[in-house]
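Quick one: VWA domain-containing protein from Ferruginibacter yonginensis, structure tokens please.
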Amino acid sequence: MVFDYFQNIIFAQPYFFALFLLIPILIFWYIKNNKQTAAIKVSTTSAKGLGSFKASMRHTPFVFRLLAIACIIVALANPQTRNDEQHAEGEGIDIMLCIDVSGSMTAQDLTPNRLEAAKAVAIDFVNKRTTDRIGVVIFAGESFTQCPLTTDHNVLIASIQNIHNGLLEDGTAIGSGLSTSIDRLRNSKTASKIVVLLTDGENNGGLIDPKTAKEIAKAFGVKVYTIGVGTDGLAPQPVQTPLGVQMQSVKVSIDEKLLTQIATETGGRYFRAKDNEGLNGIYATIDALEKSKIEITTTTRFTDKFLPFAIGAAFFLLIEILLRYLVFRKFP
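--- reply ---
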């Protein structure tokens, strides 16, 4: 309990600690002064044991005086604790991360593969957006809400880390992924609603056409940033064969025309990520383009902690006075 009271102490006037230089001077003066022989020796009928005890304890009042001085110096230095309170005012942005988890996302033209690279940059993006609500939708041949909009970024990051290939029926249902993301933003009251859609293929499934999903996004004022991920030409990809999993070169086929159209007509932008560095740069660009209108005001409060030292000084002075004038009193 005492430790908690003095935790994180700072001193508002630390220059008073220079007064501690007086203590060795006082000790020197005291030792020098006590070397002088008393001018008058008073005989006593006290018991020898009591006299010996008083003689051995005769320096105690001086020790209590030094303790009192030390407490006064610390009190003058004004010990206090600091508490910073932050108040956020304004409105954040609601963002849905829409991530392709189809089989082709295991291609290894990004390190270690497209899906793991996408997860890493998504987590980094989340860590930078401290005031926004963010959610995650995954899609392959169908779509699924991995995490609804939330400000609990620990839960969100755990959800992203749990994404892996094989969670959904294989395929690339871009329209379904986008429409599910829009549905999660539909009732949002924020002025800015964003979808960041990442895919490495062409739409080949799902119940909703990507162009229909685009019109829904426009109707609800949702801005869509689209990312095509994959190198040019061929990419190495693990493929299940009768002889086990083998690496094969698979053609990279991204519908850039469709992704560009979706982004342009909803007010967003289309990006192409051919490697890890490019993917990191894209998320950094989106982060810079979509800044939250949040004003954070920091209020600093100081709590004084000098009172225990002031009480300690008074206590030690009282003990010194009692000892000096009652126990160790000198006769004239």
